[in-house]
């Protein structure tokens, strides 16, 4: 409220200037300085087309003559122009892309001797519990708990769902060891 009173006093006392002269402390505040009532918008002249590289000088007479000579060439001569320029400018020759792997399905049916089938050795095996003796159920549950890290209830539920996969993605040596332990406990397990 106090600043508005000071502002009114300054406006009334200094009527000869267009804008009032404000004390030093009020000059930094933009809301106290009156603005032009009719600001004119800035008009920009846009080019007819956009050129990202900016204005360029017009082509020289030599370039214009060359362009007219190129356009007057026959179609056979135009086909020779590209390789001639490539050789003259020492550009690398383009290599053809090999298409050996693209039609492998079609080639396999027509020429099976070309496609050598390699047998892939299986490295990860699954151990599956097929069956167990009813008298040896507790021993089998204890063995299942040792290599699956399950609790007693979870191991019992797993064994009762026979046939069930006990362990997946193990090596051949580990799978044979598990099968032997289950066989010694009274169960039958297989490796898949």
TrEMBL record:
Pfam families: Ribosomal_L12. GO terms for cellular component: ribonucleoprotein complex; ribosome. Keywords: Ribonucleoprotein, Ribosomal protein. InterPro entries: Ribosomal_bL12, Ribosomal_bL12_C, Ribosomal_bL12_C/ClpS-like. Residues 125-188 form the Large ribosomal subunit protein bL12 C-terminal domain. CDD domains: Ribosomal_L7_L12. SUPFAM superfamilies: ClpS-like. The keyword rRNA processing does not apply. One of its GO terms (molecular function) is structural constituent of ribosome. One of its GO terms (biological process) is translation. Belongs to the bacterial ribosomal protein bL12 family. This is Large ribosomal subunit protein bL12 C-terminal domain-containing protein.
């Amino acid at each position: 409220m106090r600043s508005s009173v000071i502002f009114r006093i300054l406006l009334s006392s200094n009527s000869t200037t267009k804008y009032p002269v404000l004390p030093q402390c009020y000059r930094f505040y933009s809301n106290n300085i009156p603005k032009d009532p009719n600001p004119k918008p800035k008009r920009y002249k846009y080019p007819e087309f956009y050129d990202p590289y900016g204005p360029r000088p017009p082509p020289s007479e030599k370039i214009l003559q060359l362009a007219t000579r190129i356009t007057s060439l026959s179609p056979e001569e135009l086909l020779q122009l590209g390789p001639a320029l490539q050789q003259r400018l020492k550009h690398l020759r383009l290599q053809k892309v090999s298409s050996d792997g693209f039609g492998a399905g079609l080639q396999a049916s027509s020429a099976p001797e070309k496609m050598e089938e390699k047998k892939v050795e299986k490295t990860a095996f699954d151990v599956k519990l097929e069956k167990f003796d009813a008298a040896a159920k507790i021993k089998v549950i204890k063995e299942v708990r040792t290599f699956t890290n399950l609790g007693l209830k979870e191991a019992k539920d797993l064994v009762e769902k026979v046939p069930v996969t006990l362990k997946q993605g193990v090596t051949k040596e580990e799978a044979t060891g598990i099968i032997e332990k289950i066989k010694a406990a009274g169960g039958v397990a297989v490796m898949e």
